[in-house]
Fold:
Amino acid sequence: MTDAASLPGRPRGLVTSGAATARAVNVLAPNPSAMTLDGTNTWLLSEPDADLAVVVDPGPLDEGHLRHVVDTAEKLGKRVALTLLTHGHPDHAEGAGRFAELTGTAVRALDPALRLGDEGLGEGDVVTVGGLELRVVPTPGHTSDSLSFHLPADRAVLTGDTILGRGTTMVAHPDGRLGAYLDSLRRLRSLTVDDGVRTVLPGHGPVLEDAQGAVDFYLAHRTSRLAQVEAAVLAGHRTAPEVVAHVYADVDRSLWPAAELSVRAQLEYLRERGAL
Ligand SMILES: [Zn+2]
Structure:
């Protein structure tokens, strides 16, 4: 889900439908909206010569989409062997149960309530399917259960809703926390600096070919929004809706409910640090 707080979209992204990197194919779900941009990116990942694939975020419960994901794998000569979730929001996870039925796969996620099968998913896990290696990077903040997946062979990271292909994301207060989110952005930044990650494969919107630039943009945006929220409070706007109306005045009102969650997360963050 996106944040109303978006600065104007940056032109650096490439719209992808199909192959994004050597090992990643995007199957776009038919659920476009102000909150989901073009729709949810369902990622089909595999080694080029392998016959087994892993799917990240089957997406909404849409039979046509879920079958299209299976068909796309088959056309590439592959069988889906495992399903992973970046987090539990329905636009990413609602179709997981049905997709698991269609493919006979387990579903692994951080949140035990989302899992099907015996295996969980979390810090330090390395998932291997058909020779493809994914390293699990917890990135809480958008939600408490948000995970990213580092795909070293493609110098890429799948970020779910932690970083989007356009605009910025929301911190879904109270489950999402701003302090955790900023820590997660710094963790992703270290993947770009220390581990050579170049490409962001986001949960919505186009692929980003400048991962470090994207992380820096997100960090700068959060810092700037936080300063705006703090200034609004100091100017006498006391409640979250008042702050939204002041800080997000130029943003479409359909996005104000999402903005209010991000504002609540920012107010909490400022209070915790004694700034308010
Ligand atoms: Zn989400």
Notes: The CA atoms of residues 232 and 242 lie 9 Å apart.
